[in-house]
Write a structure and sequence with these properties.
The complex is a heterotrimer of chains A (299), B (454) and C (279). By secondary structure, chain B is an alpha+beta fold. Chain B is built from 20 helices and 14 strands. In chain B, the strands form four sheets. In chain B, strands 1, 2, 3, 4, 7 and 14 form a six-stranded mixed beta sheet that branches. Chain B has a four-stranded mixed beta sheet with strand order 9-12-8-13. In chain B, strand 2, helix 3 and strand 3 form a beta-alpha-beta unit. Chain B is globular and about 65 Å long. With 279 residues, chain C is mainly alpha-helical. Chain C has a two-stranded antiparallel ribbon with strand order 1-2. In chain C, a hairpin with an 8-residue loop joins strand 1 and strand 2. Classes of the chains: A mainly alpha (299), B alpha+beta (454), C mainly alpha (279). Chains in contact: A-B, A-C, B-C. At the B-C interface, helix 1, helix 2, helix 4, helix 19 and helix 20 of B face helix 1 of C.
Chain lengths: 299, 454, 279
C-alpha cells in the first residue's frame, strides 16, 4: 500500500496547481450547511467552557444556566494563579514532561525507524502486530509493576520517571510511523549523498531528517498529546503535589472532597487546552502530510 | 543520557557505515556499558533529588501523607498548621506529601508493598481498616496516654480502635446529618421543621418538588465508592437492614428491599439525581437550590465561600437534624471523620505522635484548621475558651448533642473493599433501572456471596 | 544510542507484562502479603462473572459506536472541506480543535453539559422544545453509555477528519480529472473514485482508535466512574476498580491478559484486511 499512497504530493499544491475546475464539487449549499452544522457542534462546547470560566461561582452552577454570562469575572483565573494551588507547577510540569517526551521519542523513533527502513529488516505482519501490541497493553494492569520498577530505580516523582514511562510506550508506534515515512524517501537520494562521502549518520541528519519534517512533526504531536492527556501515569507515578501534571492536578483540585467548582474547573480546563490548540493549529498542515506518508503508509 | 548515547551512535556508525544495528561483540559490550552507565546516572540524579526520611540538617523529619494539602480549599490551612508546628518544635520538620482523597488509599497500599511508607497519614472510614490489614500501622496504645485519652470524646477514640488496638486518632469529627433549607421549605408552604422519619421526608420532598421542580429536593451520595456506601449505611440501618455482616450477605431481606424502594422513589420521582457525590450538592446549596441533603458539617464552608452570607444568615437558612428514622424510631449516622495514623516504619515516632496530637487536639489547630477550614468539630470532650465560644452555634450544638450519639461504624474491614461495589451498583440499579427490587436485592446478595467468600 | 534506549524500553515494557501474566495465576490481594498460586482460578472465575461480560459488552459498544460515529463524521467533513480555498481553510483548522482538547477536559466539560438539571444540553433541548422532559444523561442506566460516547465522538472525529484529509490528498489528480471529463456526478465521484482511496486510511485509523478506546480511562472515569450500576463500565474501568479499590491484583491481571489477547486478535484481523488489499 505504500505504493499507492506515497510519494504523496503535498495537498496544497495539488489544489492550487490543478487546472481550472468547478470550485465546489459537492453542491455549494450542501457544503456550507454541513460545515456550519459541524462548526456549531465543534464550537459550542468550547464556547461553554469559555463562558462558564468567566462566570462567578453562583452563576456557574445555577440550575437555570445563563447562555451569556450575566456577570463577567476574571476571578476564576485569578484564583488559579493567585491561590496557593500549585496550578503553575502543574502547567510547567506538563509542558516540560510532554516536550521532553516528544523530543526523546522522536529522536529514538527516527533512529529506529531509519534502521527498520534501511537496515534490511522487513517489517512483516507479525512485527507490525508486535509494535501495535505495545499500544494496546492494558496500562491499568501494568501500572502496578511499573510503579515498583520506578520505585526501585528511585525514579518516582521525577520528570525522568514520567518521561521514561511516557516514551517507552510511545516509541514503538513512533518508530512504526517513521519507518513508513522514511520508506517514502527515494533511496537514490541517499546513494548520491553516500557518493559525496557522507557517513550513514550524516545521511540521516542532513538528508533524511530534513525530508521527513512532516513525519517528525506528526510523531512529535502524537507523543506530545498522549503525554499531555495521560492521567493514569502521573496519578500513580507521582505522589508529590508540586511534581504533578495537569490532568491529575485538575481532578484533585476541582472535584475533590469538598465541592465541584465548575467555574474554576472550566478556567483551568481552558488554560490546559490552549497550548495544545495553538500548537495544533500551527502544525496541522505538516500533520496532514505526515499522516499521509507515515501512519497510513506504515503498514 | 541522550548526549552520551548519541556520541556513541556517531562513532559506531562511522566505523561501521554499512551495518547499523549489527556490530561486533566489542561494540555490543561497549553499548551495554554505556547503557548501564546511563541508567545509573539516571538513578543517581534521581536519588539526589528525592530526600529520604529520618533527619535533615540535624532536624527530625516527619513525612505526612494527606489530601488536605491536595485540595484548593484546605491547602492554605494545612500549610499554616505545618508552619506553626515547626515554629513550636524547631527540631522537627514536617514534609507534606499531598495525595488526592480518591487515590490516597491505593497509593498508601502500594507504598506499603514497596516498603516505603510515610510516617503519618490522613485517612477516612474504611481506608484505615485497609491499611491496618496490611499490617503496616503502628499501634498507638502506648502513645495515646491518659491525658490525651481523657481530652477526647470516647466514642470518637473508639472509631480508631480496630480489634482492640488503637491505630488511628480522630482529627476532624464529621458525622452525616440531614441538612434542611428553611427558606426553601417555607416557600413550598412547609413548616420549616426537619422531618423525623423517612415517610415524613418523602411527604416534604413531594411538596417541594411540586412547587419547584427544578430545585434538587434531596441530596444524597449514591456514587459507587466506599464513601457512597458509608453514607448509605446508616440509611439502610434505619430501615432495619445491613447488606452484609462479616462474610455473610444479608442484602436479600425485606428491610433492604424497603431501603432500595425508598431509593427508587427518590430517584424516579426526580427528587435526587443519582450517581452524584455528596459534595456535588454543596455548591447549588449555596444558592438555595437544594432543599435537603445528607452531608457532614462541610456544607457551611462551601455555602459561605460561594455566596458570602454571614453566619447569622446561614443559620437562619440552614438547620441540621439526625438522619430520619424508619419504623423503629431509631436514628443512625456514620462518621466521615478524618483520622490520623502512624506507620510502624516511622523513624521518629515521638515527633510523629507530637504532630498528630498537635493536629488533633491543640487549640491552635482546632481554631485555625478544624473549625476554620474543615468546618468540622474538634474531637474534644469539653472544649473551653475561644473554641467553646465558636462552637456555640445551632449547627455545632446539634451535631454534638443530636448527631454524634447516633453514629455507628459501618462493617468496615477488608471485605468492605470488595463489597462496596456490589452494594452500590445494586443501589444505582434500583435508582436508575426498571428491574424489580426483588431481583436487585437477590442480585446484590449473590454478588456479595462471591466477593465476600473469596 | 538506539540499543541502550531499546534496552530501557524492553525493561519498562517487558517487566510489567511478564509480572502481570505471572500475577494472573495468583490470588494476589494487595492488602495481604501472602500470595498463593491458584493456577487458572482467576480465569475460571472470569467465565462466570456477569460484570466481566457486561464490561466486555460495554467496551464493544463504546468502542464500536465511537469509532464508526467518529469515522463517518470525519469522512463527511473531509469530503466537505476538501476543496475549501484560502482563508476558508481556516474552518478545517477550527473543526480539528476538539482533538487538541485534553481528554480529561472533554470529560469535565461534557459532564458539566450533561447535568440533569442545570446542564446546558437539557436546558437547550427543552428551550427548543426538542424534548419534553430532561434527559438523565449521566444518571440513568439507559443513557450513560450514550452520553459518554457522544463526548468521545466529539473528541475523536477530528482525528478521522485529519487522516481522511491526508488520504484524499493522495488521490492522484489524473484520476479525478479523468472522471471529471467523463462528467461523473459528485456522488459517483465520491463513491467510486475517492472512497476506494480512503480504505487503508479508514482501516488504519479505525485500528488505532479501537486500541485507544479500549484504554480510554480518563473520559469514563471522570464522567461516570462507570455508573450508574455497571451501565458505563468498560474493561479498563472494571480492571481499575479491581486493582485499585478492591486490591484484587490477581483477578485484575487475568482480565488484563484476556484483553491483550483480544486486541491482538482484532489487530491481526485488521492487518490481514490491509495486506489482502495490498497483494
Amino acid at each position: 500500500m505504500s505504493v499507492t499512497l506515497t510519494p504523496a504530493p503535498p495537498t496544497e499544491t495539488t489544489v492550487e496547481a490543478a487546472p481550472p475546475r468547478r470550485k465546489w464539487p459537492i453542491g455549494r449549499s450542501v457544503v456550507i450547511v454541513i460545515v456550519a452544522l459541524f462548526l456549531v457542534w465543534t464550537l459550542w462546547p468550547i464556547y461553554w467552557m469559555v463562558s462558564t470560566s468567566l462566570k462567578p461561582a453562583k452563576e456557574a452552577t445555577n440550575l437555570n444556566p445563563t447562555i451569556w454570562p450575566h456577570t463577567l469575572t476574571g476571578a476564576n483565573y485569578r484564583e488559579l494563579f493567585g491561590s496557593s494551588l500549585p496550578f503553575g507547577n502543574y502547567l510547567v510540569n506538563s509542558i516540560v514532561t510532554a516536550l521532553i517526551s516528544a523530543v526523546v521519542a522522536v529522536v529514538i523513533s527516527t533512529l529506529a525507524g531509519y534502521s527498520f527502513s534501511r537496515g534490511g529488516y522487513k517489517l512483516n505482519g507479525t512485527t507490525s502486530i508486535v509494535v501495535l501490541a505495545t499500544q494496546m497493553l492494558p496500562l491499568v494492569v501494568l501500572i502496578g509493576p511499573l510503579y515498583l520498577l520506578l520505585l526501585k530505580a528511585h525514579l518516582l516523582n521525577t520528570y525522568l520517571g514520567l518521561v521514561i514511562g511516557y516514551t517507552s510506550f510511545a516509541i514503538p508506534f513512533g518508530a512504526w510511523m517513521m519507518k513508513g515515512f522514511i520508506d517514502g524517501i527515494p533511496r537514490e537520494i541517499e546513494e548520491a549523498a553516500r557518493v559525496d562521502g557522507y557517513s550513514r549518520l550524516g545521511i540521516l541528519v542532513r538528508v533524511v531528517v530534513p525530508m521527513s519534517v512532516p513525519g517528525l512533526v506528526t510523531t512529535a504531536v502524537f507523543v506530545f498529546m498522549n503525554t499531555w492527556n495521560n492521567l493514569l501515569y502521573p496519578l500513580t507515578l507521582v505522589t508529590s503535589n508540586t511534581k504533578q501534571t495537569l490532568p491529575p492536578g485538575l481532578q484533585q483540585s476541582f472535584s475533590g472532597t469538598f465541592k465541584t467548582d465548575y467555574g474554576g474547573l472550566m478556567a483551568a480546563s481552558l488554560i490546559t487546552s490552549l497550548p495544545l490548540i495553538i500548537a495544533f493549529f500551527l502544525v496541522q498542515r505538516s500533520m496532514v502530510r505526515g499522516m499521509t506518508a507515515g501512519a497510513l503508509a506504515g503498514t | 543520557m541522550r548526549s552520551c548515547g548519541r556520541s556513541e551512535a556517531i562513532d559506531a556508525s562511522t566505523r561501521h557505515p554499512s551495518r547499523i544495528g549489527a556490530g561486533g561483540a566489542r561494540r555490543h559490550a561497549r553499548t551495554l556499558v554505556l547503557a548501564c552507565a546511563a541508567v545509573s546516572l539516571l538513578v543517581v540524579s534521581a536519588c539526589s533529588s528525592s530526600g529520604g526520611s529520618g533527619t535533615q540538617n540535624g532536624k527530625q523529619v516527619v513525612t505526612f501523607a494527606n489530601w488536605a494539602d491536595a485540595e484548593q480549599n484546605t491547602q492554605p490551612g494545612i500549610e499554616a498548621m505545618i508552619k506553626e508546628f515547626e515554629k513550636e518544635n524547631p527540631n522537627i520538620t514536617v514534609k507534606s506529601l499531598p495525595i488526592s482523597y480518591t487515590d490516597i488509599e491505593h497509593q498508601l497500599v502500594l507504598q506499603v508493598q514497596s516498603g516505603n511508607t510515610p510516617d503519618v497519614a490522613e485517612l477516612q472510614g474504611n481506608y484505615t481498616f485497609s491499611l491496618q490489614a496490611t499490617g503496616a500501622l503502628q499501634s498507638l496504645d502506648s502513645y495515646a496516654n491518659g491525658s490525651y485519652q481523657q481530652s477526647v470524646i470516647p466514642q470518637e477514640l473508639q472509631l480508631g480502635n480496630i480489634d482492640g488496638q488503637l491505630v488511628a486518632i480522630p482529627w476532624t469529627v464529621a458525622p452525616f446529618a440531614l441538612w434542611y433549607n428553611k427558606k426553601v421549605m417555607a416557600q413550598a408552604g412547609l413548616d420549616p421543621k426537619p422531618p423525623a422519619t423517612w415517610d415524613e421526608l418523602l411527604t416534604d420532598l413531594a411538596a417541594i418538588h411540586q412547587k419547584a421542580p427544578k430545585i434538587i429536593a434531596f441530596g444524597t451520595d449514591s456514587t459507587n465508592r466506599t464513601y457512597g456506601l458509608d453514607q448509605n449505611w446508616p440509611v439502610m440501618k434505619s430501615f432495619g437492614g445491613v447488606p452484609f455482616d462479616g462474610k455473610d450477605p444479608s442484602a436479600d431481606t425485606q428491610a433492604m428491599k424497603d431501603y432500595l424502594n425508598f431509593m427508587r422513589t427518590v430517584a424516579s420521582k426526580g427528587y435526587t439525581p443519582p450517581n452524584k457525590k455528596g459534595g456535588f450538592f454543596r455548591q447549588p446549596a449555596a444558592s438555595d437550590q437544594v432543599a435537603f441533603t445528607i452531608d457532614g458539617p462541610y456544607v457551611k464552608g462551601v455555602v459561605q465561600s460561594t455566596s458570602h452570607v454571614s453566619d447569622a444568615q446561614f443559620y437562619q437558612t440552614w438547620g441540621i437534624a439526625p438522619l430520619p428514622s424508619g419504623s423503629d424510631g431509631k436514628h443512625y449516622s456514620a462518621p466521615t471523620d478524618h483520622q490520623l495514623v502512624m506507620f510502624s516504619k516511622a523513624k521518629n515516632k515521638d515527633a510523629a505522635w507530637k504532630f498528630m496530637q498537635f493536629l488533633s487536639t491543640s487549640d491552635y489547630a482546632i481554631q485555625n484548621y478544624t473549625l476554620k477550614y474543615e468546618n468540622s468539630l474538634p474531637p474534644l470532650q469539653t472544649p473551653t475558651g475561644e473554641i467553646a465560644k465558636e462552637l456555640d452555634n445551632p449547627i455545632s450544638q446539634a451535631f454534638k448533642t443530636d448527631v454524634i450519639p447516633t453514629v455507628i461504624r459501618p462493617n468496615w474491614g477488608t471485605a468492605y473493599d470488595n463489597a462496596y461495589s456490589d452494594v452500590m451498583t445494586g443501589v444505582q440499579s434500583a435508582m436508575t433501572s426498571s428491574s424489580s427490587i426483588d431481583s436487585i436485592a437477590s442480585h446484590i446478595s449473590s454478588a456479595l456471596k462471591n466477593d465476600l467468600g473469596g | 544510542m538506539t540499543l541502550p534506549a531499546l534496552l530501557i524500553l524492553a525493561l519498562v515494557i517487558g517487566y510489567p507484562i511478564v509480572r502481570a501474566v505471572i500475577i494472573s495465576f495468583y490470588h494476589y490481594p494487595l492488602l495481604n502479603p501472602q500470595h498463593n498460586f491458584i493456577g487458572a482460578d482467576n480465569y475460571r472465575r472470569l467465565v462466570d462473572d456477569p460484570v466481566f461480560w457486561q464490561s466486555l459488552q460495554n467496551t464493544a459498544i463504546y468502542t464500536g459506536v465511537s469509532v464508526v460515529g467518529a469515522m463517518l463524521m470525519g469522512l463527511v467533513l473531509a469530503l466537505a472541506t476538501e476543496n475549501l480555498q484560502g482563508p476558508w481553510r481556516f474552518f478545517r483548522g477550527v473543526l480539528l480543535t476538539p482533538w487538541a482538547v485534553p481528554v480529561i477536559v472533554v470529560a469535565f466539560l461534557f459532564q458539566f453539559m450533561f447535568e440533569d438539571t442545570g446542564g446546558i444540553t437539557n436546558d437547550l433541548l427543552l428551550r427548543l422544545h426538542i424534548i419534553d422532559s430532561a434527559i438523565p444523561w449521566l444518571s440513568s442506566s439507559q443513557w450513560s453509555l450514550a452520553a459518554v460516547i457522544i463526548a468521545n465522538i466529539w473528541s475523536q472525529a477530528p482525528f478521522f477528519l485529519l487522516i481522511f484529509t491526508a488520504a484524499l490528498g493522495g488521490v492522484p489528480v489524473e484520476v479525478t480529472e479523468a472522471a471529471r471529463i467523463d462528467r461523473a456526478s459528485t456522488w459517483s465521484m465520491i463513491a467510486l473514485i475517492k472512497l476506494p482511496y480512503l480504505r487503508s486510511a479508514a482501516v488504519v485509523g479505525a485500528l488505532l482508535m479501537i486500541i485507544q478506546n479500549f484504554n480510554n480511562f480518563p473520559l469514563i472515569w471522570a464522567m461516570t466512574e462507570g455508573g450508574p450500576a455497571y451501565s458505563s463500565t468498560t474493561l479498563v474501568i472494571y480492571v481499575y476498580r479491581l486493582a485499585f479499590t478492591s486490591f484484587n491484583l490477581g483477578y485484575a491481571s487475568a482480565i488484563g491478559v484476556v484483553w491483550l489477547v483480544l486486541l491482538l486478535m482484532i489487530s491481526a484481523a485488521f492487518i490481514r484486511v490491509l495486506r489482502g488489499k495490498t497483494s
